[in-house]
Amino acid sequence: MPYIAAIDQGTTSTRVIVTTTEGTVCSQAQFEHEQIMPRQGWVEHDPLEIWRNTRRALAQALAEKDIAEADIAALGITNQRETAVVWEKETGRPVYNAIVWQDTRTNFDGNPAQHLEKTGLLRNSYPAGPKWAWILDNVEGARERAERGELLAGTIDTWLMWNLTGGARQPEEAVHLTDVTNASRTLLMDLHTLDWDDELCEEIGVPRVMLPEIRASIGKFASVRRRGPIAGAPITGVLGDQQAALFGQGCLAEGEAKITYGTGLFMLLNTGERAQVSANGMLTTVAYQREGEAPVYALEGSVAVGGSLIQWLRDQLGILRTAAESESLARQVDDSAGVVIVPAFSGLFAPRWRPDARGVITGLTRFADRRHIARAALEATCLQAIEVVRAVEQDAGTSIPELRVDGGMTDNELLMQMQADLLGAPVVRPGSIETTVMGAASAAGIGASLIDAPLTLGESTRWECTMDQPERERFMSAWEDAVARSYGLG
Questions:
Q1: Among 385, 297, 375, 381, which Cα is nearest to 342's?
Q2: Is the pLDDT of residue 332 over 70?
Q3: Alpha carbon distances (Å) from 232 to 73, 165, 370
C-alpha cells in the first residue's frame, strides 16, 4: 500500500503524520521545541533543534506502525511561514537563530503600504525578507559572505528541504527551493510574476543570490537523500501552514473561506485567479499553485495571538494548569464580569496593524477571578476573529454565510459556540481539525498523482448563533474601548 507522509513544522512543535490515500491516519509523532525570547518583542527558534525534531518525528511515525521507507510514495511539507533562517552553504550551520513570524524587531518607520500592490504585504515586522536583512546586518561578516554566495536564506520549508535532500552531509546534492505560498510571505516576491523582485531585494537588503528558487506548490520538488529519513521519498507538495489549512478544508472555489485557530488566528478567503488588493487591512497571498497551472490567490487576515493567549495564562501567569482547563473554568461562570483582554503581545496585526499596541486587561474588580479571566480570553479570541471576518467581507463585497474552522483551539466547544454567537453566523468544524497537515498530505498526494482531490476530513459539527444583536453590540463596544486603551503603550 502506498502511504503519504506529511511534515507539519509549526510555531511550537514539529509533527509528522502518515496517511493512506483514502485519508486514514495510520501513525503520527510530535515534538515541541524551545521558544527563545532574548528581549522583549523578540522571538527565536533554533533551526538545528527543528531539524533534529523533524528527523525524530519521521522515524517515530514510521516505527509506530512498522511502515517501510519504500512505502512512502509522497512527502508533503507545511510550515510556519514568515520565520526566517540564514545558514552556511557548505556546512549547514545557521549563522543566527531563526527569527519567528511573531518577532517585532524589524518594524519599519515609513509608509507600510508602499509595496502592497506588488507583494500583497505591508512593510512591517511580519514578512521574512526584512528578518533576513536584519541577520545580515547584525551578524559580523554575514552580508559580505551572502554577497559572495556563501550563505543561503530560506523560510522553514526551504530549510527542511535543504536538509532532507543533502544538508550538511551532502551539501552538493541539497536543493535550495521554496514554493509560491511561502515566497509570497517575504515582501520580496512579485505576486504577478511569481518571481523575486530585484528592486525589492535591493531596497530591503537581501542579495538575490542567497534566495531559493520558487516552485509551484503541488508538483515534484526533489527526493529525500539516500541516507536520510524516508530515503528516496519524493517531495511533491509544499504549502505555508495557512494555505495548507485552506487546501485541506477543500476551499478550492472562489469565495470559500476558513479560519484557523492555532498559535495565532488566520482567515483566508479564496479569490480565484485574481490577486485582489485589500482596502481594509487584509493581506493578499498566493493560496496554492499546481505545476503548470495559474496560481490561485487569497485574501488573508492574520491575528498574532490566539492559542498563545491560553498558553500565556498557563505558563506565565499560572492561572491554568492545562490549556483544556480554559473551557471548564469558563463554563463555571455566565459571563466575564466585565473583564476584557486585548492580547496585543506583539502589537495588533490585521486589520488594525498597530505595532505600538500592547496587551491590556480592563474591567477588573475584586469580584473577578480566574474563571472570568479564562472566559475573557476565549471572548478575546472570538472578537479578534470577527474583526478579520468583517474586513474580508468588506473587501469581497459579500457576507460569509458560514465560517469553516480548524486548528487545535476548535476542540474547545464553548469557544465555538461563543464564536457563532458573537459572529451571528453558523460555525462549522470538520471531523478532523488537523486540516493543516492533511492539506500538506493532500497536496503531496495530488502532486504524486496518487489522488485527485483533497483527502476527506470526516463528518462536520455545526454551531448556530443563539445571541441577539443588542448583546453582540454590547460585546463589540466593550472590545473597542479596551483596544483603544492598548494603543501607544509600545
A1: 381
A2: yes
A3: 9, 9, 52
Contact 345, 360 (CB under 8 A): no
Q: Are strands 296-303 and 360-362 parallel, antiparallel or unpaired?
A: unpaired
Q: How far apart are CA 216 and CA 227, in angstroms?
A: 26
Q: Provide the whole-model pTM.
A: 0.91
CA dihedral over 372, 378, 382, 388, signed as positive or negative: positive
Alpha-carbon distance of 7 to 4, in angstroms, equals 10
Amino acid identity for residue 453 in this structure = A
What radius of gyration do the chain's Cα atoms show? 22
Axis-axis angle for helices 156-165, 47-64 (nearest 10): 60
> Does the pLDDT value for residue 489 go beyond 80?
no
Q: Which residue, among 88, 102, 86, has the nearest Cα to 40 in the 3D structure?
A: 102
87 strand-pairing partners: 94, 152
Dump pLDDT digits (tens) for 1-37.
799 999 999 999 999 999 999 999 999 999 999 999 9
Closest CA to 178 of 224, 229, 217: 217
In degrees and rounded to multiples of 5, residue 194 shows phi and psi of 60, 35
Rounded to an integer, the average pLDDT of 267-282 is 93
**Cell 550538511 appears where?**
168
DSSP string, 182-227: HHTTSS-EETTTTEE-HHHHHHHT--GGGSPEEE-SEEEEEE--TT
Q: Which residues on neighbouring strands pair with residue 299, listed in sequence order? A: 269, 284
Contact between residue 336 and residue 366 where contact means Cβ atoms under 8 Å apart: no
Task: Please report how many Cα atoms fall inside a 13 Å half-sphere around the Cα of residue 270, on the Cβ side.
Answer: 22
Q: How far apart are CA 312 and CA 263, in angstroms?
A: 11
Residue 337's Cβ-count burial label (10 Å; 0-12, 13-18, 19+) is: middle
Dist. CA 109–CA 113, nearest whole Å? 12
Q: Is 39 exposed, middle or buried (CB count within 10 Å of its CB: 0-12, 13-18, 19+)?
A: exposed
Query: Which conformational region is residue 458 in: left (phi greater than 0), alpha (psi within -120 to 50 degrees), or beta?
Result: left
Categorize the per-residue pLDDT at 424 as very low, low, confident or very high, splitting at 50, 70 and 90.
very high
Note if the bond before 351 is cis, omega within 30 degrees. yes
Q: Which of 166-170, 227-231, 255-259 has the lowest mean pLDDT?
A: 227-231
CB 142 within 8 A of CB 177: no
pLDDT in the model for residue 110: 81
pLDDT surpasses 70 at 228: no
Q: Reply yes or no on whether the pLDDT at 445 is more than 90.
A: yes
What is the distance between the terminal CA atoms of the chain, rounded to a whole angstrom? 55
Tell me if 243 sits within 8 A of 287, measured CB to CB: yes
In this structure, the strands spanning 427-429 and 403-406 are parallel
